[in-house]
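FORM 7B: Structural annotation worksheet

SECTION A. Query
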Amino acid sequence: MFILQLPNVSIDLYVNNIVVSASGLVAYCFAGITVRAIGAKNLLIYGLLISGSLGISLYWSVNGLSTLIISSVFLSVAAVSTSSLLGVVLALFPTSLRSLVVAIAMMFGRLGALAGNMLFPVFMEMGCIQPFLMIGGVLLAAGALSFILPDTEEMSLK
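SECTION B. Predicted structure
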């Protein structure tokens, strides 16, 4: 007789996942207010810099609660700031090119996701800190590069 044994998974795993997802939902609810208050470019810059710093700081998390808090804030800020990227980039191009710009931006996003998934196991083989440095470093570099984007607040949409 074959008996299927399921892995012993703690309920905390599911609760933590719900907490991280709920923090993302709250962040998206306040994203519009934040864009109006500080501007899309500033949200992009500071969001990427903050999330990059939090991504690297996850390595030094000492317990489950601090990991939950840091990862919740990290994922929420990273998601909102990368979502604002399309809005900032679209304001730079005329209407006739916007669909092409969105397609190219999404293509590079998917290529980045593919490259990250391919490199993550390689970095895990090297050691524990390398994946955190990769994720945080990419976000910090994107935040630094966002400084050179022109201000689109007073630009007319053509």
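SECTION C. Observations
The CA atoms of residues 59 and 75 lie 15 Å apart. The two ends are 71 Å apart (CA to CA).

SECTION D. Sign-off
Analyst initials: ____
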